[in-house]
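Notes to self after the call with IL:
- keep both proteins in one doc
- input above output, always
- annotate only the second one for now

Protein 1:
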Amino acid sequence: MNTSTLRTGIVFALLQLFFTLTWTVYVIYLPQLAAEAGIAKSWIVWILIADQLVFLVTDWLMGVKADRSARIVGKLGSQIGLITLISALAFLAMPLAAPNGSPLLFLAITFVWTVTSSALRAPPLVLIGKHAGIGEKPWLSGLWLFGLGIAGAIAPYLTGVLRDTDPRLPFALASIAVALAAWAMAWAERHLAASAPATTEAPEKPLSIPYFLIIVALAAIGYQIHFSLNSAPQYLRYATPAELSQLMPLFWVGFNLAMLPLTWIIRRQGDFKVLAAGAVIGAVAVLYSTQAGALGPLITAQIIAGAAWAAVMFGMFGAATTLGHTGREGFSAGGMHSMFALATMLRILVIATQLNQDKALMQSLTWAPALCWGVAALLLIARLRRA
């Protein structure tokens, strides 16, 4: 990996890091800001569900839009920069508008931020898929995912640190960081286009995009249930609630540790094989985590599950660009992100309807992550064997 590719990858990593942390800051302060705007606490979870519904629609639409814009070098990066500037201003306005006590104004600003922030999700994969050489794609995708892993690891600490802080400062810092990273994408687009190989061999496409999105949905639902609903109760069998902030990031420790080895493995084995292997290993790890008899084995299972999820994500990112090659990278990547939003929305819906308080349901959900990842692996392996 040369220096220019490294700089481009760092831009992508920072963009994903700042975007994810922006969402974390938003979730931390939403109850406080909504209360200041005159919105009842019972509506918070429904606002979050509405956010994911907006993501589900706009992620796909932005992916299609990115396909059209990317045909002209420099156009996609400049458009993202403009949209992100609007997003940053809307995010900055949230803590300023909330004390005015106008629910409609606050919700309108939140809607603008949710819609415009979708511009940051699919386009980087479009650029990687369209312009990056075969040797560069794993490195760029790995750095992009590394930003996600770092954000996931520090999110629990941010929740504790920022809880009693004035929201205006975190919102301002997050807005500036996202805006700077997004504007840097214009440079990244031109660099990738300038260094792109003159011709690229058409990749093999062993499955269709709709079939791929079913696999993505299953894997994403399994992740949401395991990490957001099952992990904390599993840890609480052997640890205190105060220790959760140190234990929950261990999943993301495994995720980040796997990133460098996966960069090498995926170049040799391919995206689809790595995706299938990650789903199989993840299914075994999360299944074992339900039966772990002590904290040590549980931690090991969580770290392995995090590494497996890294393989699944890495494989999915590469598969999305492969299946969309060439001209439909945004359609494929946008659909993938929409499936992520769907899985998140379903998880929040379980909390909104208080189904997570149903002991019988939660007991059955213990097995759901392994089932989802196992079925996703079987569907993919069956199609690969057929191809």
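Protein 2 (the one to annotate):
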Amino acid sequence: MKIIIDKDLQELSEILNRDETLKVECLAPKDINNKNIKSAEALFLRSITKIDNKLLENTKVKFVASLTSGEDHINHETLKNLDISLSSGQGGNTLAVVEYVLSTLSILLIGKKITPFETKIGIIGFGRIGKKLKEILDAIGFPNIIYDPYIPECSGTLKDVLECDVITLHCSYSKQGKFPSHHLLTDQHLNKLSKKKFLINCSRGEVLTEDYYELKNNNFVFDVWPNENEPNFDNYSKPMIATPHIAGKTIGAENNFSFNALKDFNNFFDLNLNYSSTHKIKEVFVGKSLEEEINFFGLPASLILKVYDVREDDLIFKKYFDNKNINEDFQDLRISLKRLGITNHKITGDVSNKSKSLMNLMGFRL
């Protein structure tokens, strides 16, 4: 059986190559096209490759694995019409994206930009990430409000969320449907945002209009950008924090994607390939200062930043951003910034049961 796999899915490629009955070919995303996949029966892809009729028509493909959480690059109607099985990575990077937001909140707390237990946080999108983030905010006593028109229990409106001190976007991306998220926030919303409000976007770049990227604003945190396959930063201004779509790129998240994709692949083709991560767990010793910090900030801000400080990725990305010449390097840079993540850290030391509960909720190992 012939398999095509994105060249950046290296660990998965090594596992598939262990089976001598499989003919595995690794291709760069730009080379994954209809002509080059015609004789393949299975594809393992990232979000940079559009899974549609143009790619799949008149091929032997029976199974497609998308190793990413978003699905706006997938045409489900095409897969249904061609009777192709899909393995989706939905939910695989939930804790990684939440970690990114917690790192940002920790920076704001330590910098006295927001007030513990008083700052209201608005969440747009109540999927896996939004729900996990709310669960943590509720646990630490931070007021929050949710907007998601597709979920009845979310009573907050978009207007309510935009009145919050921190607004964080985690909605799925769509151009169609009853409530499309394309350009959900327009220049009119931008004009109403106070300069004291913080806006975090970890969803998709196109959820915001171009105005948000062109305006110089020191309270914006952007991990996603318009047209990431061919990005153009010429007219964009550097926000407070800018990263190249890496909020969900932890080793733990990639392990989840690979494990689920391989499991579905095994089930579909009746195979028995095993996946086991070789990455070690890093131990982190904590003392009484952890309890003091949780009591003061709500979050163990120093611990979070010790595990992941988003400013480090911001500093690396700034060099590319300022050069205004990163079209060919965006995806390569994104791949290079994979981090260990909270789920690969184990807490040791004398910790109260209450703190253990919070650490566990955030994804730390105990």
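Annotation: The chain has two domains: 2-90, 94-248+288-362. The chain is about 35% helix and 15% strand.
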